[in-house]
């Protein structure tokens, strides 16, 4: 349940005609959530067959149109295109006169704040950056996942209440992000979420290679507990051979990965180095054990067996 107070009806934005430019995984889900709050999706643009299927599934009976036609019909426009395409899209819409004064123009890019909408602002639009901190599947489950989802919100101060009200209406939790902090904010989310998918997928592949029939079932409880512990305790939740300083075990890992999955070695070493640094800084890794461990990570090689006591 949202911890933000629900806006008083008299303070909520009027029911708006909503348009979507870019029917990827995000736009149709947000428009569907706004529809549940009483707004009216009126037009959506999409080019690929996949985007058209998503629009038909999440926004049935909403007509497909060109971006300019979407802006012509909508009072609130969701610009849900890839980050790199956003500046050019905004510039093109403004230069062709598609943007109308008083129109709410919302982009969902994590990378950009409201400033990327400056060309539309000069044309009289009201710029909002509302980025849902959520991974999307392009299916109706996304609408349900918006409940309690944090949104990174950036907008002119005079539009702050309107931006936050729209997020709350979609079931989300507004989190104000300063314009200059947007790239760092987005990098943090990508580091946590996108890289997590890569790590889990690689882990499942390695478990299959080791003969585990149901790697998802094996990893589910382990990763769920690790995530919960990390969110609760931060670095204090670190466990495993790196945090313990088990250099021999880490060296054996590297040797096995080189043999069976060489493409994973660089990622393993990079994450192990980062883990070692954090464990050492927080007193979890004993300094006397760190030297051999850091040597293994620096060389990416097996420890020499010289028979000496360590």
What is the number of strand segments?
Answer: 7
- The SSE string, one letter per element, is EHEHHEHEHEHEHEHHHHHH
Q: Portion of residues in helices?
A: 40-55%
Distance between the termini: 54 Å
What is the spatial order of strands in the main beta sheet?
2-1-3-4-5-6-7
Task: Tell me the strand percentage band.
Answer: 5-15%
- Uncertain ranges: 1-12, 306-310
Number of helices: 13
Mean pLDDT level: 92
CA-based gyration radius: 24 Å
List the helices and strands and how they pair.
Blueprint: E1 17-21, H1 27-36, E2 40-45, H2 49-58, H3 67-73, E3 76-79, H4 86-95, E4 104-107, H5 118-122, E5 126-132, H6 141-145, E6 150-154, H7 160-169, E7 173-176, H8 182-209, H9 215-233, H10 241-244, H11 247-260, H12 265-281, H13 287-299
Parallel strand pairs: 1-2, 1-3, 3-4, 4-5, 6-7
Antiparallel strand pairs: 5-6
Quick overview:
49% of the residues lie in helices and 11% in strands. Helix 11 packs parallel to helix 13 and helix 12 runs antiparallel to helix 13.
